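Section 5.1 Outputs to date
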Amino acid sequence: MTDQAGLDVNPEPMPKQPARSRQIKTEMARVFGEMDAKTCRAFISSLAPRTAVNPLFSLLLHPVPLVKWRAVQGFGVVAERLAGEDMEGARTILRRMMWQLNDESGGIGWGCPEGMGEIVAVHAGLAVEFHQVLISYIREDGNFLEYGPLRRGALWGVGRAAETRADLMQKATEPLLGFCQSDDAEECALAARALGQLSASSALSLLESLRADAREVVLFLEGTLRPWRVGDVAQEAVERVRRASAENHA
């Protein structure tokens, strides 16, 4: 089966987990919950990439938010390493995420848009292949995610990908403009953040209008989970857009 971007969403099966998979998951959760980002990255890097995949998918469902976000970051580490030795294996991770977001999978796909965004952000080759799929999750003429928590995950993923792949992610600009007017504060903040990463000059007036928005949301940005005012996120985006515009006219 293919999605609207024309990519196969039926993942090839990953190899069976080793017998100590549960132990790896338990230790991974402990490290993610207690250690800093550098230590978490070192822990993931110490594992064989394929060994880490299933525990990471499991931890996307973890009730502690920081553990879930460290798992999202972990997918970037694993996919980047795996792509260096087995590109098809790395693609399988993304296809598995796509499948879990597909209605036919019977699942919900918690954390999968975020994981996809992280992978697109860290690996250029996978970004070229999968960025359009990621964008499609926020487009009403694409694979739009109707469920709010998943949609917010897709907005985060688009913004994360835009940090390093702004050239590829430009087609996200139009739907992001719409989300800046959402009644949902988190959607609004994440859209504003992404537009700033895209240096979207067309969004400047809209972003400026959001600077007075005092609604507070908890976001995982720049490796930290903390409260943000929507207006503060918008202000950072405004500054980024203005800097880019000044550089282009210098």
